[in-house]
Amino acid sequence: MKKSLLIIIMLGMIAILVACGGASDDTDQQAEGDSNEQEGQALTITATDFEFDQEEYTVLAGEPVTIDFASEQGTHGIGIDEFEVNIKGDGSATFTPEASGEYEIYCTVPCGTGHSDMKSTLVVQ
Questions:
Q1: In terms of domains, do 59 and 120 share one?
Q2: Is residue 92 within 8 Å of 27, Cβ to Cβ?
Q3: 60-88, pLDDT tens digit by residue?
Q4: 112 shares a domain with 53
Q5: Do the Cβ atoms of 59 and 41 come closer than 8 Å?
Q6: What is the CATH number of the domain that holds 47?
Q7: What is the DSSP letter of 99?
Q8: pLDDT computed for residue 101 by the predictor
Q9: Which of 20, 63, 115, 120 is the S-S candidate for 52 at Cβ 3.0 to 4.6 Å?
């Protein structure tokens, strides 16, 4: 009885490991395919305590934009409502702005007394 139970447990663990290993490979291939398909503009935004590294960022309309976001001091995030961008902590997001205009970039993580003033502008030309 104990031997049968041990065999069943071992087979179950092997099945779980095989399932987890297979999903990892598919995800890596999908991520590589997505990055090749979405060539375009790269935008790096860095946050420090209560400010972004630039007051204004400029991109072109009709071309994909990939934002790479990093916090150098404190914990921050960025949001751009019109493009459904919401990054909390370090991360990235890709979107395609179709219309020219100015759009507010703001911090999405309450970071202290200067949080409400932590804003910048995305200019789409």
A1: yes
A2: no
A3: 999 999 999 999 988 999 999 999 999 99
A4: yes
A5: yes
A6: 2.60.40.420
A7: S
A8: 97
A9: 120
Tens-place pLDDT, residues 13-60: 676 655 555 444 444 434 444 444 447 899 999 999 889 999 999 999
Residue 92 belongs to what domain range?
A: 41-124
3-state secondary structure of 22: helix
Side-chain-side CA neighbours of residue 57 (13 Å): 25
| 65-71 vs 41-48, strand pairing mode | parallel
Q: Which amino acid is at 114?
A: G
* Tokens standing for residue 114: 């200067």
Residues 24 and 60 in one domain: no
**In terms of domains, do 64 and 100 share one?**
yes
Instruction: Read off the tokens for 46.
Output: 């860095």
Please check whether residues 83 and 52 belong to one and the same domain: yes
The reported pTM is 0.67
